[in-house]
Amino acid sequence: MHRNNQELADFLRRARSQIDPTRAGLPPDGRVRRVPGLRREEVARLAGVSTDYYARLEQGRRIVPSAAVVEAIGRALGLDDAGRAHLNDLIGLTSAPTPGRTRDVQRVRPGLYQLLDALDGEPALILGRRTDILAANRMAKALFTDFDQLPVTHRNYARWMFLGDGARALFLDWPDQARAAVESLRFEVGRNPGDRATTDLVTELREHSPEFDQWWEQHRVHQRTHGSKRLRHHLVGDLTVEYETLTLPGDPETTLFIYTTEPGSPSRRAMDILASWTASTPALEPNPEITEQ
Q1: 153: which strand partners?
Q2: pLDDT tens, 92-144?
Q3: Which letter, b or e, does each residue of 255-293 get, where b requires 16 or more Cβ atoms within 10 Å of its Cβ?
Q4: Do the beta carbons of residue 149 and residue 288 sit within 8 Å?
Q5: 163: Cβ–Cβ under 8 A, 6 or more apart, which residues?
Q6: 230: DSSP letter
Q7: φ, ψ (nearest 5 deg) of residue 35
Q8: Is-above-0.85 flag for pTM?
Q9: Cβ distance 266 to 293 under 8 Å?
Q10: What's the distance, CA 12 to chain centroid?
Q11: Which of 47, 130, 232, 268 has the smallest set of CB atoms within 10 Å of its CB?
């Protein structure tokens, strides 16, 4: 079975197992359910397709359903926007890089470094493929860690979250943040099947982090657009930051993360103290290029 077909089969099975038949609107039929969630024939009924057709799709057979059928299956499985986008990626309804194709090295253009410097009062990161950290301003380094001091191959948000020094102690809600990182990486795998660097990263994390391996097996996906993080910083104590993500025009694989705090709040005061204590830090310099493996 082709790797992406296997990903599709796994995703459909796990999504089906998480649906409550009662909440899906299915009347009791008196049959004993040996496994949680919906049966294949129930998903097929809800989606308006034959059981055989859906079964072949869940088995990873080489069939390409129409956009309307995929939309119906997404509704039947109760998928959110990220889940439906992931389903489209796995089936092949969205354009994705050709597996095995050599991909360009990601670089941050000078204007973006200037933008990060201009956001000096707020932590900001630029993330690339597979959550590689391409650039960070002074406040982001002070709040999280100085990513420039890490080996180039370790400058990855998901890797730092699970294998880096300090992440578990920094995030009061580490399980939530770490799980979101797993689900975002899952989303990336569906969008960029066959990317060797992503595959190598996932293999390393599964080998060295039991939590990552457990959550990876659940095949949930998440596309981070905004949210909050609760931190316990070693210099300024507890604070909560809100983040917004901006996909950069002309470069959909690069995302700007900006972290803010509520005006007048204890978190804002903590951020201001952190800014004053680190004000003498040298201005942002471009990171060495992140090379593809």
Answers
A1: none
A2: 776 555 444 446 678 888 999 999 999 988 999 999 999 999 999 999 999 99
A3: bbbbbbbeeeeebeebbeebbeeeeeeeebeebeebeee
A4: no
A5: 204, 205, 208, 209
A6: E
A7: -135, 155
A8: no
A9: no
A10: 19
A11: 232
